[in-house]
Amino acid sequence: MTAYKNKVWYLSSCTTCKNIIKELQLENGNCEFVDIKVTPILATELEEIQNNLKCSYEELFNKRALKFKAIKESVKSDEDFRTLILEEYTFLKRPVIKIGQKYFVGNSKAVVEDAKRELNSSIS
Fold first, then answer.
1. Distance from C-alpha of 109 to C-alpha of 106, rounded to nearest angstrom
2. Is 96 helix (H, G, I), strand (E, B) or coil?
3. Cα 124 to the chain's mean position, in Å?
4. Widest pairwise Cα distance in the chain
5. Cα–Cα distance measured from residue 80 to residue 4, given in angstroms and rounded to the nearest whole number
6. Backbone phi and psi for residue 3, each to the nearest 5 degrees, phi listed first
7. Does pTM surpass 0.85?
8. What are 46-102's pLDDT values in tens digits?
9. What are the domain boundaries of the chain?
10. Does residue 60 contact residue 49 with C-beta atoms inside 8 Å?
11. Rounded-to-integer distance, Cα 31 and Cα 106, Å
12. How is domain 6-123 classified at the architecture level of CATH?
């Protein structure tokens, strides 16, 4: 089994995820890809990401998910966000990219640029 330096949690049917993977040139073989629809993120992985970024679970939550509209009134705490992410893949903000020991979450231009800088610095 290969130990990968980099890892991406993504949705294979998501064009945005595919475009970011291509833009960052992550298909070069030094990256493990996890399709969260097929292999949901583990609680330990989610906690590692949250601890590494020193953020709330709400910040890792995809509030654009269609399923969220129906339940958003019932979400009261950060623990609720954590539980929902672990129960339903669509609630994880994506992609989640691990480069070395650093994590980048979401598809904003700033996040993609930060990931690109990290990749470039890890090559040099």
1. 9
2. strand
3. 25
4. 48
5. 31
6. -95, 115
7. yes
8. 999 999 999 999 999 999 999 999 999 999 999 999 999 999 999 999 999 999 999
9. 6-123
10. yes
11. 18
12. 3-Layer(aba) Sandwich (3.40)
